[in-house]
Amino acid sequence: xxxxxxxxxxxxxxxxxxxxxxxxxxxxxxxxxxxxxxxxxxxxxxxxxxxxxxxxxxxxxxxxxxxxxxxxxxxxxxxxxxxxxxxxxxxxxxxxxxxxxxxxxxxxxxxxxxxxxxxxxxxxxxxxxxxxxxxxxxxxxxxxxxxxxxxxxxxxxxxxxxxxxxxxxxxxxxxxxxxxxxxxxxxxxxxxxxxxxxxxxxxxxxxxxxxxxxxxxxxxxxxxxxxxxxxxxxxxxxxxxxxxxxxxxxxxxxxxxxxxxxxxxxxxxxxxxxxxxxxxxxxxxxxxxxxxxxxxxxxxxxxxxxxxxxxxxxxxxxxxxxxxxxxxxxxxxxxxxxxxxxxxxxxxxxxxxxxxxxxxxxxxxxxxxxxxxxxxxxxxxxxxxxxxxxxxxxxxxxxxxxxxxxxxxxxxxxxxxxxxxxxxxxxxxxxxxxxxxxxxxxxxxxxxxxxxxxxxxxxxxxxxxxxxxxxxxxxxxxxxxxxxxxxxxxxxxxxxxxxxxxxxxxxxxxxxxxxxxxxxxxxxxxxxxxxxxxxxxxxxxxxxxxxxxxxxxxxxxxxxxxxxxxxxxxxxxxxxxxxxxxxxxxxxxxxxxxxxxxxxxxxxxxxxxxxxxxxxxxxxxxxxxxxxxxxxxxxxxxxxxxxxxxxxxxxxxxxxxxxxxxxxxxxxxxxxxxxxxxxxxxxxxxxxxxxxxxxxxxxxxxxxxxxxxxxxxxxxxxxxx
Length: 721
Ligand SMILES: Nc1nc2c(c(=O)[nH]1)N[C@H]1C(S)=C(S)[C@@H](COP(=O)(O)OP(=O)(O)OC[C@H]3O[C@@H](n4cnc5c(=O)[nH]c(N)nc54)[C@H](O)[C@@H]3O)O[C@H]1N2
Ligand SMILES: Nc1nc2c(c(=O)[nH]1)N[C@H]1C(S)=C(S)[C@@H](COP(=O)(O)OP(=O)(O)OC[C@H]3O[C@@H](n4cnc5c(=O)[nH]c(N)nc54)[C@H](O)[C@@H]3O)O[C@H]1N2
Ligand code: SF4
Ligand SMILES: [Mo]
Known about the structure:
Layout: E1 3-9, E2 18-24, E3 27-33, H1 46-55, E4 65-67, E5 73-75, H2 78-96, E6 101-105, H3 114-126, E7 131-133, H4 140-150, E8 158-159, E9 166-170, H5 174-177, H6 187-196, E10 200-204, H7 210-214, E11 216-218, H8 225-238, H9 244-250, E12 251-252, H10 254-261, H11 266-273, H12 277-289, E13 293-297, H13 299-302, H14 307-320, E14 330-331, H15 339-345, E15 351-355, E16 362-364, H16 373-378, E17 387-391, H17 395-398, H18 402-409, E18 414-419, E19 431-434, E20 456-457, H19 473-483, H20 492-499, H21 506-516, H22 532-536, E21 542-543, E22 564-565, H23 569-576, E23 592-595, E24 621-624, H24 626-632, E25 639-644, E26 647-655, E27 663-665, H25 677-681, E28 710-716
Parallel strand pairs: 6-7, 6-17, 9-10, 9-13, 10-11, 12-22, 17-18, 18-19, 23-27, 24-26
Antiparallel strand pairs: 1-2, 2-3, 4-5, 4-19, 8-14, 15-16, 20-21, 23-28, 24-27, 25-26, 25-28
Bound molecules: ligand MGD (2 copies), iron/sulfur cluster and molybdenum atom (MO).
C-alpha cells in the first residue's frame, strides 16, 4: 500500500487553512495541518482534522436515492433519478412556468466556486426569482449596508489585523468561529499579537465568550447594538472628535448622520444597552485617538432586528473616526479576480431590484429571504413555488419555523436534495442526489479572495476521486438543466452560445477570469502575472503583498460621484423607527432573550456525525445565568423548556455567569432526525422552532431572520406523569 501526501486547503470555514491529506489506495486516511501554508502555518482546528471522518462516514449518501411512499428510500441509478426529475420538472415548467421552480443553497455551497454560479445560472435561465441561500440567516444585511454606503454590495471591509492598534469585535467570537467575512488563519494568534504590540482587543457581546474571556469585554443586552453605535457616534460629533476631512472629502450626508445621532446621548441609551455612558464615551474617544482602529462585526450584529442599520453604523463609525480605508483600520481587499466586477457583469451585484412575492422584502445578491420559503410554497397564485432543490443546505434546522417548512416541503410537486448526507431536510425530499465533498473537487476561493486580511491566493486539485457515485453540484445542475432545455448561466450571451453547443466548464471560466484579471498574466502578455500554472507550482498558496492597500475605496465606490452615502433615506427611516425594547428586556409572557452560540466542535448542523467531534458524550445545552437559574429553580444539568410566541423546545441547562442576566444562549444546528446515526443519538433541540418566519418579524432592509434576541420564557421541566 502506498501512501501519497496531497496538499490542499480546508473548506469548512473561512480561514481556509492549509491541509495535507494522506491518501492510501484512493482513500483519504488522514488530514493534517500544512506547515508550509504561508498564513495558517501549521494550524488547523478539530473540525478540519475530523473531516476525514466525514469523508469516510458510513452514513454518507453515495448513490442517488428515491423516496418510497412509506418515507423510506431506495437506491436508483443516476439515469433513472435524472430522467424522472427532468420529466417532473418539465411538466411543472410547462404548466406553471419557470418561476414555479426554486432553489435553496446552503453554506457549504459558498466554499465551491462552481456550485453557486451554476445554481444561479440555472434559475436565471428559467427566469425564476426563487433563489434562497443561508445568507438571509447570516449576512445579507452586511451586503445591503454596503450597497447603501458604497453602491456595491460586495465592498466588504475587513479589519487590518496586522497593523491595528485597537480592534473592536462586535458580536463575533473568532476564537471559536475562526473569523467570518474575513479570511484570517491563526486568528487567535493574530489577536494576541495586537495586544503583544501594545494594542487592545475589545469584545462587545452579551456573553463573556471565549474571545471576550481572553481580551477586554463589554457586556450589552442582546439586539441593542444600534443604540450603542448611535451613541458612540453621538459622542464623536458632540466632542468634535470626527475626522472632518474624511467626512467632507469622501462622503455625502455627514451632516444628516450627525442630526440622526443627535438625540442618542450615551446616558439615554444606557437603559437599552446596559452599557454605562462612561464606557460608551471612552470607547468613542479611544477609536478617534487610535492610529488605526478597526471595528469588526459579525453574526451578533446581523441576526437582530436592525441588522442592516447596525452594519451600516459600524462602517460609518469607522469613517467618522478616521479609520476607514487606512492602515490599521477597516480596509478593502483587492482580489485577483475582482468579485465585485464579475458580479456586476452578470448582474449578481443587485440589491432591492426585485421584491419577494410573500412579504414584499428585497432580494440581496439575487437571493430572497429564506424565511418566506415555506409561504412561497403554500400560498397559491402566480409564481407559487412547486419544485424546490436544496443543495448543501439544511434549512429545516437553519431557517425560522422548522415545523412550517417541513409541512410545506411535503406539499411540493417535486423536492430534490443534493447533499453528502441524508440530512434533516433531505429526508423530506423525493430524491436525494449524492454530492462530492470538498476533498473530491478542484477548487478556488473565489468569494474569499478579497476578504483575506493578508492578500493571498491559492487553488487546489481534487485530493481523491468522488466516493461511490457522487458528483459535483455543477455537473448535476448541467444534467438537470439540460433535461428541461436550459443553459445554466446568468449571462445571456453564454446562454445563447450554450444553445449552439459552445460551453465553458467552470474551470475554464475561472482560469480565464484569473488571467485577464488585474494581476493576471494576460495569457503571457504580462510576465510574472498570475496564471493557473503559477498557482499549480505553488500548492501551499501565494502571498500577494505584505499588507492590504490603503486608499483604494474611492476607485471602488459605485455611487454616482464616487462618494460614500452616510444618510440614505432607508437608514434615516430605520433610526427614526427604533423603539426601545426595555424595560423587562423582553415582554411579559416572554421576559428573557435568547441568543445563539457557536461551538468549537460543531459546524452549523453538519458535523455532528463525527465520533471524534462528539467524543465525551457532548450534548446540547442552554446557558443560563446563575441568578436567573436561581429565580427559576433551575440547577445545572436540569431539563428546561424554552418557549417563544412561535414554539417550544426542551433541552438541558448549563448554569454559567458568562451571560448577562435575562439572557440565555443556545446553539443552533442540533435536534437531528436524519440519516446520520451519531448525530441523531446526540439528541438536543432545534432552536429555530422558536424563531418567527412571519414577514413582519423579518428585518425590513435585507429580509434577515431574527435569530438573536428572541423573546422567550424558560421553565424547569417537572417530571411528567
Ligand atoms: N466552530 C464553528 N465555527 C464556525 C461555525 C460553526 O458553526 N462552528 N459557523 C461558521 C459560520 S456559518 C459563520 S456565519 C461564522 C460566524 O462567526 P461569528 O459571528 O464570529 O460566530 P458566533 O460564535 O456566532 O459569534 C457571534 C457572537 O455574537 C454574540 N451575540 C449574540 N447576540 C448579540 C447581539 O445582539 N449583539 C452583540 N454585540 N453580540 C451578540 C454571541 O454571544 C456570539 O459570541 O462562524 C463560522 N465558523
Ligand atoms: N438560530 C440560528 N440559526 C442559524 C444561525 C444562528 O447563528 N442561529 N446561523 C445561520 C448561519 S450563519 C448559517 S451559514 C446557516 C447554515 O445553514 P445551512 O447552510 O442551511 O445548513 P448547514 O447546517 O450548513 O448544513 C449544510 C448541509 O450541506 C451538506 N454538505 C456539506 N458539505 C457539502 C458539499 O460539499 N456539497 C453538498 N452538496 N452538501 C454538503 C451537509 O451535509 C448539510 O446537510 O445557519 C443559519 N441558522
Ligand atoms: S479553522 Fe478549522 S474548519 Fe476552519 S478552515 Fe481552518 S481547519 Fe478548517
Ligand atoms: Mo454562516
